[in-house]
Amino acid sequence: MSGRVGLEECDATKLVDVLSALETTRAEGVNVRAECAIYVLTNITVNGLETFIDFHALRDGVDVSVQIAPFNVLHQELVSETSQLHATKPNLLVLALGWEGFAGRFDIVPDDVVSRLEGLFDLAASKSAATIAVNTFVLPSAPTERAPAAGSVSGTIQAVNDWIRDYVRAHRDRFFLCDWGGYVQDIGRAQALDSRYALMAKAPFRPAFLTRYAADLARISCALLGLNKKVLVLDCDNTLWGGVLGEDGPDGIKLDPDDYPRQRLLCGAERVFGYRTAWRCPGDLLEKQRSRCARSDAYTSALSDAAKRLCNNADQLGKQSRKHSSAGRRAKLGARQFCLCR
Fold first, then answer.
1. Each residue of 28-85: pLDDT tens digit?
2. pLDDT at 280
3. Label partner for 11 (CA 20 to 30 A): which of 66, 103, 129, 263?
4. Burial 37-71 (b: 16+ CB within 10 A, else e)
5. Closest by Cα among 269, 104, 111, 95 to 171
6. CATH homologous superfamily for the domain 32-224
7. Which of 86-95, 148-157, 201-210 has the lowest mean pLDDT?
């Protein structure tokens, strides 16, 4: 078994297995395409995170050097010109912030936390040339369908999380967002969090959470180095057109402009893309395209031609994916990155 296969088949949620796979891979040799330095500033314990980052990055041929700063020295590391942070000059600076360690108490108001966060984020951007990864805060209890009440602990944290998302969106040239709350929802609180170690050692995260977090940081590293794989997957059946393209063919799908694509797309957009996604409905774009066509059949013809091109491209992508199946498995879209094909 080669080291590469070992990395692919390893259970990424078990630290012992990850360490074994890394040891085997490095002993047998691995094709390293690039190197990346990561520096982590944190106010909680994230022991093991560096191993999981190394594991996920090496899968894509990136040799990472991960350093975790001493506990809760965020401002000292940023301000001091002789700190290890400035000596390292990392490609990626990670601010791993826990709510209790940063906010100090649960009865604090959102504006106070936002003010401190903004100061920290701005300081990090001014003192380091690295790309910066920040996180949302984990809610103290499982979220419900009902929005958290204003003034409650969950409501306060949710309001701060919304501000963090807006800040990252406004500074997307330097900042990336790692959605800790989303990780917990996807993995499950029991598998993601350890309340006992959170109290004993300020180490709230289980391996399942750490490996998910590390995978996102590794993907960010690959993106910074220009090594990320980009795949645009389009399932437009019964959305942009009626029917199934693969079964009905380009000539058999429905392309009535009043029903497809406008009404179907508008009805499904919020349901499909509304959760944790900044979705801009393309209805205006479709109307502009429609206005350029003097007649409805011209509009329909334009969409039909686009459908044929998509069908041909999908066939080519399928052939390439089957040829490079291992690469295709690793070529994943970021969970919150969507593209609109016009």
1. 877 888 999 999 999 999 989 999 999 999 988 899 999 999 999 999 999 999 999 9
2. 39
3. 66
4. bbbbbbbbbbebbbbbbbbbbbbbebebebebbee
5. 95
6. SGNH hydrolase (3.40.50.1110)
7. 148-157
Name the token pair of 53: 């980052």
Q: Where in the chain is the domain with CATH 3.40.50.1110?
A: 32-224
What phi and psi, each to the nearest 5 degrees, are found at residue 333? -70, 145
The residue assigned the tokens 């590390």 is 214
pTM exceeding 0.85: no
Conformational region of residue 68, where left means phi above 0, alpha means psi within -120 to 50, and beta covers everything else: beta
What is the model's pLDDT at position 85? 96
Cα dihedral across residues 216, 222, 225, 231: positive or negative: negative
193, containing H or E segment: none
Residue 246 structure tokens:
């693969």
In whole angstroms, what separates CA 25 from the centre of its chain? 26
Report how far residue 295's alpha carbon sits from residue 298's, in angstroms, rounded to the nearest whole number: 5
